[in-house]
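not sure who needs this but someone in the group chat was asking about C-X-C motif chemokine from Prolemur simus so here u go. i didnt clean anything up, its just raw.
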Amino acid sequence: PPLGRDRGFGGVAHPGTAPLTQSLLPAGAPVVAELRCQCLQTLQGIHFKNIQSVKVTPPGPHCAQTEVIAQLKSGQEACLNPAAPMVKKIIDKMLNKET
């Protein structure tokens, strides 16, 4: 299982909530797959050589905090603490690597 990621409830809706359907959204509105934070726990850092890519998701209606999810070369995903100094360095390295 991914490190620190919410595995959800196996597709079972929360009691008392209706599932979101296309009909509830205005025409052309994007359908958001996850309406909650994906990272429940974060790591303070991970060795740069183990990281394949990094996805930074800014705060939004799905989650009030910035989320940093690293795709590891092993195939696993790991949630990283965006405020940790080591994670900030990783993000900078990954951004510089792509340019």
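also Residues 85-98 form the longest helix (14 residues). if thats useful
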